[in-house]
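R.M. (postdoc): so does anyone remember the format we settled on? I'll just put the structure tokens first.
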């Protein structure tokens, strides 16, 4: 890590503290409450302080671009998340949970910029009985059996503002929902109701991971474009269609899970809204690009029609029918997921979106070895129905491999991790080697790389200039 990054880290954390004063007051309270046990003696009245459990963590991540090979790219980034969770059980069958998170992000390119947010994270009340339970509030609910690539796990949107450089569990966003489960000898029936829609977090402009990258920065610094054309391109705005909290816009899910012999299985149905943005209108017409980069778009301006319109973003209704299974055979774990999805979003060469039905499945095998090695290999395949040749990045039929390898050393004080993905159809790939140190209790530090490569007209290749090295620290209490 560079000297400038070492100096900046404490400054950025302090900036997060200043912007989230209310959150840090809660942390001070957490430190005071932590010693109290979650126990109430018989006949003793309930005390929220005495019967509470408080935990949290401070997560810090700094990254540096490995090669300065793109115009106006972010050469350095920093992110600081601070999380606090409180849990109590006023009665044996009632559980209350509330958590808050602050998120500070900083970027360095030709200048610097930052953003800050704080929000209620998960927060719910849970009622439980012997044969049923009900949970209402902000939640993250996991469906499916496979890792990282999961066709069935569609209840929560993701924060994709830094692509796939964070693990899926760190990208998930909580959603307000009601979850009801009924337990009976043959299995479990689960129902989901979501009255509010929440989209994924994505960027169209102004980031290395944005759909159109650093287009506006490149336009501002261009010496080949007229000032009127610069004003037009940098003035393009995004407008999202809003959706009311009516029954018409609510989302529903139903899942049945069971076990027979040594096989866990599940069947599910989800009537939802796709959390990824659907570009219904793009103001630059008569273009046909091979990717959404600034170079590709600017190269089409001579033949383009420029209209005084916004980029209109909507979110399409879709349905997901899913199946999942998990079992063991000897020393190996076997798992799989399959889903049929309607109206999935794909970007076209005119920079508007189209929706197509797809069939998507993942098959996986994993094993833990006696010498502290763990390996997980997954094959994924996807078929797009009624394929349109104007679709960018995505192929009509696509296959890929996901491999995760872990090795622990020194009684789990040191761990070597590798996550990798290889697209068998277009030969693009992603590598995430990492060394994780857990020498001090409640603190882990990891150092790793995010490496993406492939042809420019592939999804991973499009972001291939974003290779980065990073250091992450997480302190839990």
């Amino acid at each position: 890590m560079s000297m400038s990054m070492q100096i900046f880290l404490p400054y950025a954390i302090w900036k997060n503290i200043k912007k989230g004063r209310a959150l840090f007051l809660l942390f001070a309270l957490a430190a005071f409450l932590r010693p109290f046990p979650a126990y109430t003696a018989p006949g003793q009245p309930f005390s929220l302080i005495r019967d509470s459990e408080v935990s949290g963590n401070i997560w810090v991540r700094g990254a540096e671009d490995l090669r300065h090979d793109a115009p106006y790219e972010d050469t350095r980034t920093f992110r600081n998340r601070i999380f606090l969770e409180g849990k109590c059980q006023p009665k044996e069958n009632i559980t209350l949970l509330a958590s808050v998170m602050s998120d500070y992000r900083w970027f360095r390119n030709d200048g610097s910029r930052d953003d800050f947010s704080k929000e209620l994270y998960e927060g719910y009340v849970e009622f439980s009985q012997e044969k049923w339970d009900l949970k209402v509030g902000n939640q993250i609910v996991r469906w499916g059996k496979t890792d990282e690539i999961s066709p069935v796990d569609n209840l929560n949107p993701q924060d994709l503002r830094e692509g796939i450089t964070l693990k899926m569990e760190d990208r998930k966003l909580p959603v307000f929902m009601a979850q009801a489960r009924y337990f009976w000898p043959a299995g479990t029936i689960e129902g989901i109701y979501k009255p509010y829609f929440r989209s994924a977090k994505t960027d169209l402009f102004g980031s290395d991971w944005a759909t159109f990258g650093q287009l506006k920065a490149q336009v501002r610094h261009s010496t080949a474009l007229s000032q009127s054309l610069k004003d037009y391109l940098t003035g393009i705005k995004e407008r999202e269609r809003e959706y009311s909290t009516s029954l018409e816009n609510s989302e529903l899910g139903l899942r049945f899970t069971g076990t027979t012999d040594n096989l866990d299985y599940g069947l599910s149905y989800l009537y939802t809204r796709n959390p990824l943005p659907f570009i219904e209108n793009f103001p630059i017409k008569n273009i046909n690009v091979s990717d959404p980069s600034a170079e590709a778009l600017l190269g089409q301006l001579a033949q383009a029609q420029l209209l005084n319109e916004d980029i209109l973003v909507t979110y399409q209704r879709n349905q997901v029918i899913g199946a999942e299974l998990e079992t063991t055979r000897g020393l190996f774990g076997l798992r799989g997921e399959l889903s049929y999805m309607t109206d999935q979003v794909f970007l076209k060469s005119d920079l508007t979106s189209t929706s197509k039905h797809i069939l998507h499945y993942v098959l996986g095998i994993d094993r833990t070895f006696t010498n502290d090695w763990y390996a997980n290999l997954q094959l994924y395949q996807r078929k797009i129905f009624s394929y349109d040749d104007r679709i960018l990045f995505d192929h009509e039929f696509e296959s890929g491999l996901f491999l995760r390898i872990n090795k622990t050393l020194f009684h789990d004080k040191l761990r070597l991790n590798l996550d990798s993905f290889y697209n068998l159809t277009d030969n693009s790939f992603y590598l995430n080697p990492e060394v994780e140190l857990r020498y001090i209790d409640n603190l882990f530090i990891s150092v790793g790389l995010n490496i993406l490569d492939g042809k420019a007209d592939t999804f991973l290749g499009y972001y291939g200039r974003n290779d980065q090295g990073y250091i992450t620290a997480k302190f839990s209490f």
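R.M.: ...and that's the designed sequence above, right after the tokens. Also worth knowing: The first strand starts at residue 52 and ends at 65. The helical segments are 3-19, 21-33, 168-171, 215-220, 227-234, 294-298, 459-462.
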